[in-house]
Amino acid sequence: MINRDLIDIFIELAREKNIERSELGTIIEQLFLFIIDKEKGESDNCSVIVNLDKGEIEIYVEKTIVEEVDDDHFDITLERALELEPELVDLKLGDTFVEVIDPARFGRRLVANARQFLNKRTREVQQQYIYEDYVQRIGEVIIGTVHQVHRENTFVNIEQTELRMPRNEQIFSERFRRGDTIRALVKAVEVTPKGPDILISRSDDLFLYKLFEMEVPEIEDGIIEIKGIARKPGERSKIIVHSVDKRIDAVGACVGMRGSRIQSVVRELNNEKIDIVNYTEKSEVFITRALSPAKPVDLYIDDDRKYCVAIFDEGGLENAVGRSGVNINLASKLTGYTIDAYTKKEYEDVLLNQKTNLDTFKGIKKGVLKKLANVDITSVADYLSTKKFVLVDELELTSDEIDSISSAVNEFISKNDEPELTEEAPAEDVVEAIVEEVEKESSATEEAPAEEEVAEEAHAEEVVEEAPAEEEVAEEAPTEEEVVEEEVAEEAPTEEEVVEEELEEEK
Q1: Are strands 96-101 and 161-166 parallel, antiparallel or unpaired?
Q2: Residue 144: CA atoms inside 13 Å, Cβ hemisphere, count?
Q3: Pairing outcome for strands 224-232 and 153-158
Q4: Any residues with CB less than 8 A from the CB of 249 and at least 6 apart, and which?
Q5: What is the DSSP string of 418-450?
Q6: Closest Cα to residue 159, out of 143, 137, 173?
Q7: Alpha-carbon span 211 to 265, nearest angstrom
Q8: Which of 70, 187, 297, 456 could join 201 via S-S bond, C-beta 3.0 to 4.6 A?
Q9: CB burial string 399-409: b at 16+ within 10 A, e below
C-alpha cells in the first residue's frame, strides 16, 4: 500500500499540467476506479483513499461471504476471508468482508492507463479552470498575442489559453500577423465539446467604453459618465458624456491636453474618428451636437414621434450624411431620433408634393379612400404621418389594402425623385444614392488620400473632422444638384398651378 514512487510520479505530472495538489488526490482516486471498472466491469463496491503526504494509496473492495464464488469481484468464501483476516473469527455466511488491494497488482497496466487517464483529466481540469476564470473576466480588456490568422477567425493566445476573435468582431480595416500584440474585450465564454470557446471583440461598443475608462481617470472615478455610444467600427464613433461635477468639462477631460487622451484611443482603433458630445436634455441642442461636424441651419423636431427633420445649406448636406450615411445614422442611434436631412429647396419640394391628394392616385379603391377621409387622411403627408396601427386597428384595413396605398404613394414619390418622409426610408438613403451615382459617372475621379493620414482635431463638439474623401464627393455634388434642379424646374409650372389654385380656394 505504500507507494511513494508512484505518488511522486503523479505529483510531477500535476506540476507540469499546473494542477493543484488538492485536485491531484481526487484524480488519482478516479484513476484507480477507472482501471478497476475497465478490468472488472464495475467499481461501485470499491473505494480508494490517497494520502499524498505519506505517499499512501489504499484500495478497498467490499465482498459478500458465500459458499461458492460466482464472481470474485463481488464474492469471497469464508475460508479465504479468514485467511486474509484471521482475527475476524466472528465472520459468517452473508456478512460483508472488506478486502484490501495492493496497487502494485495492476503492474504495467497501471502506468499505461495512468498516463492516458491523467492527460484526459488534466485537460478537463484545465478547461474548467479556464472557463471559470474567463467567465469572471467578461467585459474586461485583455492583451494577447496573435497565434493564427484564418479567413473567418483570428486566434489570440494568453499564456496557454486560446481566444477566438471572429471576423465580425474585428475592425474591418485591420489586418493582423502572427506575433502581433493586440488588445480586445472578452465578450462571451461558451462551453463546447472541445473546451471553452472564449470570444473576444474589438468592434463592440463596450470596448470603446473600456478604452476611454483606461485613458480618462475621471470616468473610472465616476466623475464623468458615458451615457451612450454609437459606433461604426473603423470609421466613426459618437459618444455622449456627462460630468457629475459642474466644475469639470466632460468633453475636455476626455480629449485631454492637446488631444493626448483621445489620440491614444484613436490610434488603438486604427484611426477611427471619434466625436464627443456633451449631454443635454434639450433635444434641439442635443441633435445639433450629435450631427457634428455638420451644422444644421434649422431643425423641425417631433418629440412624441422621436422624429427630426434637419435642414442644411447646399454644402453642408454631404457632411451631415457622411460617407454611406454613417454620420447621420450614428447621430440617429445616439439621440434615439429618426433624422432626415434635406437642403432648404429639397424640403420645400417635399412639403409641396406631399400636399397631393390620395384620390388622384390609381389603384386605391373608393371605399378605402372614404375610410381614410373619415379620419382626415386625405393627402400624402397625412398618410405618411399615420401609424400603421391606426390603419389596422381603427380603420380595419386589410394588408392588401394597405399595400395598395403604400405602392401608390411610393410610386408617386419615386416619380418626383423625392425622398419618402417616413421612419422606414430616411432621407440620407436618397443622398447616398446620389453620391454613388456621381461616383459611377465620374470614372476619372480617384479615391481621396487615406483617412488615416488626416489629422484629428480636439474640440468640444467636433473632435474629428470628415475624411478628405468626403470633401471630394462634396466637390462633385453640385453637378448632381444641377441635374436635380433641372428636373424640378421642368415640373415647376405644375406645382405653381397647384399653389395658385389653393390660394384662390382660400380667398
Answers
A1: unpaired
A2: 28
A3: unpaired
A4: 243, 460
A5: ----SSSS-HHHHHHHHHHHHHHH-TTPPPPSP
A6: 143
A7: 6
A8: 187
A9: eebeebbbebb
> Can you spell out the DSSP letters for 184-242?
EEEEEEEEETTEEEEEEESSSHHHHHHHHHHH-HHHHTTSEEEEEEEEETTTEEEEEEE
Where residue 419 falls (left for φ over 0; alpha for ψ -120 to 50; beta otherwise) is beta
Domains of the chain, with CATH numbers?
4-130 (3.30.1480), 137-203 (2.40.50.140), 350-500 (no CATH)
Rounded distance, CA 203 to CA 165, Å? 10
3-class state of residue 36 by DSSP: helix
Write the single-letter amino acid at 483: V
Strand arrangement of the beta sheet that strand 273-278 belongs to:
224-232, 236-243, 273-278
Q: Which residues fall within 8 angstroms of residue 202, CB to CB, at 6 or more apart? A: 165, 169, 170, 171, 174, 182, 183, 184, 185, 233, 269
For Cα atoms 340, 344, 346, give the angle at the middle one, nearest 5 degrees.
Answer: 65
**Whole-number pLDDT of residue 473:** 34
Is residue 482's pLDDT more than 70? no
Distances (CA, A) of 86 to 73, 91, 100, 306: 21, 10, 14, 92
Put residue 222 in one of left, alpha, beta given phi > 0 → left and psi -120 to 50 → alpha: left
Interatomic CA distance for residues 15 and 8, integer angstroms: 11
Strands 298-302 and 307-312 come out as: antiparallel
By DSSP bridging, strand 96-101 and strand 338-343 are unpaired
Range from 227-231, 300-304, 452-456 that averages highest in pLDDT: 227-231
Q: What is the pLDDT of residues 361-377, one digit of tens each?
A: 777 877 878 778 777 78
What pTM was computed for the model? 0.60
What is residue 245's three-state secondary structure?
A: coil
- Cα dihedral 499, 504, 505, 507 sign: positive
At which residue does the C-alpha cell 475497465 appear?
38
Max mean pLDDT among 280-294, 351-365, 420-434 falls in 280-294
- C-alpha closest to that of 310 among 326, 295, 293, 322: 295
Give the pLDDT of residue 180: 94
Would you state the cell numbers that stand for residue 437, as one nine-digit string? 451615382
Span 246-265, average pLDDT? 92
Helix segments in 306-343, DSSP class H:
317-321, 326-335
CB 346 within 8 A of CB 298: no
Burial class (CB in 10 A: 0-12, 13-18, 19+), 129: middle
